[in-house]
Amino acid sequence: MTFRRFLLSACLLLLSFTTVSAETLKIGLNYPQTGRYKEQGLQQRLGAFLAVDEINKAGGILGRDVELVIRNSRGEPDRGARNTAELIDRQGASMVFGGVSSAVAISSGKAARARNRIYFGTLTYSNATTGSEGHSHMFREPYNAWMTAKALSRYLKENHANEEYFYVTADYTWGWSVEESVRRFSDTQDTEKHKGVKTPFPRALITDFRRALEEAEQSNAKVLMLVLFGDDMVRALDVAYDMGLTKRMQVVVPNLTLGMAAQVGPTVMEGIIGGAPWVWNLPYEKDYPRGKEFVEAFSQRYSMRPSSSAASAYSILYQYKDAVERAGTTNTRAVIRELEGHHYSLLKDEQYWRDFDHQNVQTVHVVKIKPRNTIVDDEYAADYFDIIYSMPGDEAAQTREEWEQRRREAGKPLTL
After folding, report:
1. For residue 58, which phi and psi values (nearest 5 degrees)?
2. What CA–CA distance (Å, rounded) separates 302 from 42?
3. Residue ranges per domain, the chain?
4. For the packed helices 77-89 and 102-114, what is the interaxial angle rounded to 10 degrees?
């Protein structure tokens, strides 16, 4: 009997080890499946599932298969925070990422911090995300408004010197950040000379954009700065085209994605300038092998080209995997330590996670939309972007002194 009991105990123990080793590692993706930013959200989902499949085929993370648990933020900050809490508290997510609206990313990041989990922002450009609202558990993968504005303004000052600007800006944290940053670096802070209009967010109507653009039409501006994103940018740009403004003014969309360009279409988009952290043709032009592999895998799987949204989600999962494996654990504090100051190259040239603010420092690109015929000649009718200027990440990013100044102004500590 003693031996039989021992054998039974040993079998039960072995079974428990097997169960533990087979347990999946849950990661939460909090993105807009509906609402004004749903197209950018869809790209995140596609990029994330591609990464998860690749990671699982290669053995998972620390031998555990990754399970992606998704929730719809609808672009609403409160819902994003509730989703994050539920993903961690009820689903057991070891990390959460996502967001298109900066307000959603900020609120979701705070919910993750309260539960000692990392939150990676995928599309969050407001300076506040890793600035005044930054904290130890928030990591931002794309560039911020400051970095975009610095690169864009360098190009615009060289090519549109002494011209008047007109700003049409979404009235929330991302829009405020971008307009403030572009005005600063383009020397257009005089709001009497370089006028602007705020449009409602998140429920702007076509009539709101038309009224704003009619004011732009009546100004002397030669540069039209559309600080809008997602469906809002699409609608406003259609109106601007119908009014003939795209022929009379240089239209600039500070944060431009492939999804937005494709929604508007090559005829309306031709000649428009914007900023981008990554575009699908970049790996081919600069010969980044891993970037080319990603583009080809994504294109073959989904019959479309990946946007910067997809690239961000894909990169985050690989960055989390690598940090966990360097740490040898999913313990949040240990993973944070491995991320801070880490340099890597994945889909483009070298990037790194800055230790003092958790901003991802990377090259910033200024792009111009190609002629219609060039765009449609691509296999997926997606060859939109001509890279016309690039700025190294360390040149584009805030210095520590500049970051600390913003933290002081917000009454926040000078360390995360």
Report:
1. -90, 10
2. 12
3. 25-144+287-362, 146-279+364-396
4. 30
Instruction: Give the span between the Cα atoms of 117 and 111, in whole angstroms.
Output: 9
Which superfamily, per CATH, for 25-144+287-362? Response regulator (3.40.50.2300)
pLDDT digits (tens, 9 = 90+) for 380-405: 999 999 999 999 999 999 999 999 99
- In whole angstroms, what is the distance from residue 292 CA to residue 370 CA? 21
Give the model confidence (pLDDT) of 21-74 as tens digits: 459 999 999 999 988 888 888 999 999 999 999 999 999 999 999 999 999 999
Position of tokens 């999946």? 24
Which residue in 57, 74, 75 sits closest to 66, CA to CA? 57
Which amino acid type is present at position 147?
M
Write the DSSP string, 56-109. Answer: HHTT-BTTB-EEEEEEE-TT-HHHHHHHHHHHHHTT--SEEEE-SSHHHHHHHH
134 close to 177: Cβ distance less than 8 angstroms: no
Architecture field, domain 146-279+364-396:
3-Layer(aba) Sandwich (3.40)
